Amino acid sequence: MLEKIKSLREKAIQELEASADSNSLEEWKRTYLGKKGFVTQLLRQIGSLPPEERPKAGEAANLLRDELTQLYEEKASAIKEAERLQAAKAQAIDVTLPGRRPQIGALHPVTQTLREIIEIFSRMGFGVYEGPEVEWDEYNFGLLNIPPEHPARDMWDTLYIAPPYGKDGNMLLRTHTSPDQIRVMELTKPPIRVVVPGRCYRHEATDASHEWMFYQVEGLAVDKGITMAHLKGVLTTFVREMFGKERKVRFRCDYFPFVEPGADMAMDCIVCGGKGCRVCKFTGWLEILGAGMVHPQVLRNVGIDPNIYTGFAFGMGVERIAMLKHKIDDIRYFYANDLRFLKQFRA
Ligand code: DAH
């Protein structure tokens, strides 16, 4: 019997060493230590041995069972650890691989231009005000000296807000930033020096130079003794800061109901230097903004006495300035969300 135990032990240990994964290890456990396993059977046979052999055989069989159980447990935890390491390795990240580059964004070209415009005017002492894009008819038109039947309204056809908010066309998407002249003058007393950036909307068929949504920057200065000379000085400085010291400017009469006199300002063409080309439509000049002396009626509308105060105002399209600056020939590029266009303006 002792011989049998010895050889069973050798065989069991050999096979245990050979089992390399948890499946074969469990198989081994069933074969030796399971209910019908060799060691279990061996223990059962002890009782049928002659009495003098029983103690030794019993001790040896128990020792074998304890030894194999312990060896099994050691092996099981070694295999478990090895399998855990292998699984971790399979999921591991190779830290030496180059990473994915994050996409770096940039400010939209219109935002860049807007900020540049505002910076130039802030250096001249202008503050910044922002008004609502949804505006009362009264502010967009009436208080700016454009009564309901005025033909000038045709220039600024817009999108109206439906009931329950607006009714009888009294609420609309502002067509220009000029209503904020009124808002600023209602909020503060002269001296006033302010620029107003913001979105404007028009009922418009889009083409290379028209969008139904665009940006404007409005300007307003009201004080005692403001004259056309101040208007010309400020706007000439703006153009030369924005487009170069050598720029020539031209002021011509123009009509806007909220100014008197009204003017249109142009600069010599930055493409041909004034000789005439496609960009300036062979005139040598590029129109960049509308301006004028604030109409006395507009001042009266907000309770400012035009006999004491005068002012100048101006309004420009931001896309137009950006188009001239970067020689872009179609306004629709700005809002087409095409990265091939936008990526060219990484500042
Ligand atoms: N609001 C005008 C427009 O949208 C532009 C303009 C012209 C603004 C003359 C002014 C101004 O302040 O004085 O066409």
Could you name the key traits of this structure?
347 residues; alpha+beta; BirA Bifunctional Protein, domain 2; 7-stranded mixed sheet; two-stranded antiparallel sheet; 11 helices; 18% strand; rod-shaped; binds 3,4-dihydroxyphenylalanine
Describe this structure in words.
The protein has 2 domains: 2-90; 109-345, BirA Bifunctional Protein, domain 2 (2-Layer Sandwich), CATH 3.30.930.10. The chain has 11 helices and 9 strands. The model has no long low-confidence stretch (mean pLDDT 93). It is of the alpha+beta class and 347 residues long. The strands form 2 sheets. It has a 7-stranded mixed beta sheet with strand order 1-4-5-9-8-7-6, with helices on both faces. 40% of the residues lie in helices and 18% in strands. A hairpin with a 4-residue loop joins strand 6 and strand 7 (259-268). It has helices at 2-18, 22-33, 38-46, 54-91, 109-123, 137-140, 179-187, 228-243, 296-301, 318-326, 339-342, and strands spanning 127-128, 134-136, 171-173, 192-201, 213-223, 249-254, 259-268, 285-294, 310-317. The relative contact order is 0.10. The termini are far apart. Bound molecules: 3,4-dihydroxyphenylalanine (DAH). 3,4-dihydroxyphenylalanine (DAH) is lined by residues 176, 178, 218, 256, 259, 262, 290-292, 313-315.
